[in-house]
Amino acid sequence: MTYASTRTVHDLYPTRGSEEVLTGRVDPVVWSEPGTPGPMWAHELESFERDGFLSVDELVVGAQDLPRTPHDARIGGEGREHLADPVDLEHGAHFAGVRLHDGPLVGQRRRVTQQPVHLVPVDVHLVDVHQSRINVKPGFGASGFYWHSDFETWHAEDGLPHMRTVSVSIALTPNHPTNGGLMIMPGSHRSFLGCAGATPKDNYKKSLQMQDAGTPSDAALTKFASACGIKLFTGKAGSATWFDCNAMHGSGDNITPFPRSNVFLVFNSVENRPSPPFAAPVRRPRYIASQDFTPVG
Amino acid sequence: MTYASTRTVHDLYPTRGSEEVLTGRVDPVVWSEPGTPGPMWAHELESFERDGFLSVDELVVGAQDLPRTPHDARIGGEGREHLADPVDLEHGAHFAGVRLHDGPLVGQRRRVTQQPVHLVPVDVHLVDVHQSRINVKPGFGASGFYWHSDFETWHAEDGLPHMRTVSVSIALTPNHPTNGGLMIMPGSHRSFLGCAGATPKDNYKKSLQMQDAGTPSDAALTKFASACGIKLFTGKAGSATWFDCNAMHGSGDNITPFPRSNVFLVFNSVENRPSPPFAAPVRRPRYIASQDFTPVG
Fold first, then answer.
1. Helix, strand or coil, per DSSP, at residue B161
2. Using a CB-CB distance cutoff of 8 angstroms, which residues of chain A are in contact with residue B252?
3. How far apart are CA B105 and CA A271, in angstroms?
4. Which pLDDT does position A139 carry in this prediction?
5. So what's the pLDDT on residue B87?
């Protein structure tokens, strides 16, 4: 594995300095040329480009076979995210079995999708899995995740130079209006909010539970939400939302007895190889940020 | 002021014992005889009787004049409930100005409704104000309120013998699907969940911020939610929800920048005079539980 270069990469998106800075997005949202063949309709790509997300009613067939009871969802503690080691991840077009790195085997080698996963927002077949995780909110007061742009972290701490990465959040349990579903500010992916404050060493150990460095100010969130509004995503098990790496998103807590578990898979273009971190003293471990750049497709 | 009697009142709804106990509701939901004239339609009363709530799109005209900016809503701290001293409350059919007991004057003597407030779920003109408060969730992570039945507390700690009390939650700010609005389990008001655990002295001092005594178990909430489902209430400023005193309700947190403030007014039948507390060592102070039984109407 080599970095894209050694520190000659220009930092397009400054962050974690002394002040919060707003920077316009330089990168395209959809990287393929208009008219490039792919599994998505043109109007779907246009919608993704405009809003920064695209919802699919039934991406995964058979999601009900994955862990979704309160008991299962409690594995490893409440309200935490569980990272899957990419080594243990059967990623790709047809399988997305996930092993919890601190828990028992869950869904390993189990068929969770019988359709090809559509990766058109990034280049088809030219992606690797940057990160994968299960977000478990078992209910009865499980906490949410505060507002953030994933790219802000991946740029600062993992060295991804460009916004050429897309996530998909797949519901393993019904996402009701009441159990802490994903919220996105539509259109927020077009502006990059560089956050104030330096990155502490080993920040990743707690940033997966509660945001610290990389947290937007109240004033910035007010500006973003006033301009963009907030969309809450709901859907049955197997529904999914693709969203851009720079979309401002978060989720509330879950006091209902209905667990809310989603698998997140993050696909990065193989042409978007990481530089050294742009704003962190150390790179995060590879079970958080993959250094395996083998294309998925 | 005298109690309804001195401890000869039968305890219809045991709670705060060594175990959680489910008791069927003995009291009616609508106390008036069928066909009694009043400002609500028969189908509205039937709906209230069945579900334990009734929503009104625009109960209050002029709610936008009340404090609703993040700055205003921050008065007195985040995510706390502010109790209004009934002495300072201009209650009744046309005024509902409220003074925060630990903050500046807010909305005092301001006309918040130009329509009579409809109290038909209890006896018209035969109610007093048992409690009034503003629930302030300024956003950016303000916490919610865990599941509870108000009557459980009012019975245990204030000595209300019967379920003859109704609340109205009036939105001072828009209640979006995303900013921690009221959630009710429809139909839950027909069963009384007696909670396990004795009431500590001065419980009220922290129970208004976080539930402690009077908290349902996970198992009971799962049973209630599976049978009843959960309804989330949304609406513009001025919209309102009437709900029965025994409805199981709660609310999630609010990480959005959109503040969510609601006024709660609680009307108790003058025929439902409090006994000594059924399950607490001391009565709560009168700014929480009124001892003024003057009819409103």
1. coil
2. 178, 180, 252-255
3. 60
4. 94
5. 26
Mean pLDDT for back-to-back runs of 10 residues, chain B (297 residues): 57 96 95 76 89 87 50 33 31 28 28 32 51 80 94 94 91 94 98 91 61 86 98 93 96 96 83 91 75 57
Q: What is the dihedral of CA B4, B6, B9, B10, to 10 degrees?
A: 160
- The pLDDT of residue A32: 82
Smallest CA–CA distance from A148 into chain B, residue: B255
Partners of B250 on chain A (C-beta within 8 Å) are 255
In angstroms, the CA A222 to CA A216 distance is 10
What gap in Å lies between CA B137 and CA B140, rounded to an integer? 9
Name the phi and psi angles at B55, rounded to 5.
Answer: -95, 145
Are residues A178 and B232, on separate chains, in Cβ contact within 8 Å? yes
Give A255's contacts in chain B (Cβ within 8 Å): 144, 146-147, 183, 250-252
Q: Would you call A146 and B258 a contact, using CB atoms and an 8 Å cutoff?
A: no
Read off φ and ψ for residue B259, nearest 5 degrees: -65, 150
The residue that leads in pLDDT, A293 or B117, is: A293
Q: Which of B227, B270, B266, B262 is nearest to B246 (CA)?
A: B266
DSSP conformational letter for A175: B
**Cβ–Cβ < 8 Å for B292, B128:** yes
pTM listed for this prediction: 0.79
Contact A170, A59 (CB under 8 A): yes
- What are the boundaries of each domain within chain B? 42-233+277-297
ipTM topping 0.95: no
Cα A137 from Cα A179, distance rounded (Å):
8
- Residue A131 has, within 13 A of its CA and on its CB side, a CA count of 24
Residue A66's pLDDT is what?
Answer: 52
Among B148, B179, B232, B255, the strongest candidate for a mutation testing the A interface, having the largest count of A CBs within 10 A, is B255
Q: Kindly tell me the burial class for residue B41, based on how many C-beta atoms sit within 10 Å of its own C-beta (0-12, 13-18, 19 or more).
A: exposed
Q: Which residue of A has its CA nearest to B232?
A: A178
Nearest by CB: B177 against A232, A251, A256: A232
- Cα–Cα distance for residue pair A117/B252, rounded to 1 Å: 33
Cα separation values, B165 from A47, A258, B159, Å: 50, 30, 13
Helical ranges in A24-182 per DSSP H: 42-51, 70-73, 150-158
Q: Backbone dihedral region of B235: left (phi > 0), alpha (psi from -120 to 50 degrees) or beta?
A: left
Mutate to test the interface with B, among A226, A256, A258 (most CBs of B within 10 A): A256
SS3 A189: helix
CA dist., res. A290 & res. A284, Å (int): 9
Write out pLDDT tens, residues A237-258: 889 999 999 999 999 999 999 9
What's residue B48's pLDDT? 93
List residues in chain A touching B: CB distance below 8 A.
70, 140-141, 143-144, 146-147, 176-178, 180, 183, 218, 221-222, 225-226, 230, 232, 250-258
Sheet containing A248-251: give its strands across: A145-149, A248-251, A182-184, A231-232
Total residues found in chain B within this entry: 297
